[in-house]
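Q: What structure does this chain adopt?
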Amino acid sequence: MPAAVRGQPAAESAPVVTVRSDIFCPFVCEAESDRPGYVIELTRAAFAHHGYQVDYQVIPYARAIEATRHGAFDAVAAVAVEDTPGFIFSHVVGLSPTVLATRKGSGFVWRGPESLEPLRLGAVIGIESWGSEVSGYIAANRDNPDRVDFSGGDEPYTMNVRKLLAGRVDVIADSGPVLTYRLMRMGVADRVEIHTVPNEVQPLMMGFSPANARSETLVRLFNDGLAQARTSGELTRILARYDLADWEP
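A:
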């Protein structure tokens, strides 16, 4: 062993927390990016306080949930309770208001689920957290491809925007900050109208595996690290990299 490292613990000896998600930027973004998403940066910071490393990789959301449910991974990042029943949840890591988006000039006005009936809605496999009205409509029409069209894979939300602009769907369900971020990145913000769904804001958490014996410990460590990051100002610095502010007043 070289003298420079003799007696030093190897980096790989640190305990590792495995985290998976699809791309839901700015909450969770590309794994290899210098901006992997503020929830991922926060998770790394929170666990670093306790000597843990975080292994984050992007996989399809439905697969991330199913595999984590059975203990293949420790956690899914930025989840809603409705999507991950039975998981062990951290404190809130962000808020996700539900929006609908149409092509510019569509004339669409949200007046409840009946507004969607003449249209083809773009949805995402495994997502049931759009609030009671939108999620209820999707559930009632999930087997009718003329009413609801599902996207999957690593970047289903980007796929839905492309379908919308190509005329393959008429309206898409999304998260407000996620859609705004994506439209700017794609350079198509001027081609899309965003419609707010009133009173539908979903809290997002880290969802830890119900099958892993250490999940209760990991949740406790994460929550402690989150509190430390907020107190020290580290959370504010992380959020500033994404032009965001703390979700807690």
